């Protein structure tokens, strides 16, 4: 089977499409034939060495997965061969990347794929959706609270903004450029701030961009970040939460239901095949955050 791998971190040209053996599912695992995945910022950071790859070389990249179950391992009974699923592998922690023709994942990390949703759209959901949902869950605030999302036009921020709105929070968006503001889902943000923090302070912030938002936070407010190395030192540990995304089929199921019901909007993406992996990464860098989908 093919797999996108690298031996040592570096520039885009370290990536190679190789032929490797098909894995066998272990206890509680499922073997999935890959349909589509996506490029996430963490993939670029692992490839470049900003995040240290887990395990030993060669390393396989990839977090997101849309595919079809081919085989189940011992004591894996949630899915049957032929079932279409979505999943996320937290490869920065596990070392188990999804950019290969066949992928083994725990069945607890999978959810059934909603019908009539294209693979290129579904591939944008797993990692950003899980990260956004876990960040919103960490707020522990009552509905009606004001929450600022930094990086609201990014994959995680966009979903977080929508989840906040669905749960009854007053969501505020922070973006860098005017064109990003225009790309946000309509009707979910109370206010959109371009390039500067709001004048009025908020009850909580969700930082998906790795910037200092402490000046926007009310005394006693909650600072949630998904970026390692933050929040700033001015925020007390009791008021801060760093979200390290964990795999969860149950959360993916909830996100997939929202997507199928039309309550969650995902943007269009540019699609490449895995044989075009270098071109896909160059386009990802050039488009500065526009979603790139990889298909078999």
UniProtKB/TrEMBL annotation:
Domain Enoyl reductase (ER): 10-296
Record-linked InterPro entries: ADH-like_N, ER, GroES-like_sf, Lipid_raft_assoc_Zn_ADH, NAD(P)-bd_dom_sf
UniProt superkingdom: Bacteria
Pfam annotation, one family: ADH_zinc_N_2
GO MF annotation terms: oxidoreductase activity
Protein name (database record): NADPH:quinone reductase
Organism: Rhodococcus koreensis
Classification lineage: Bacteria, Bacillati, Actinomycetota, Actinomycetes, Mycobacteriales
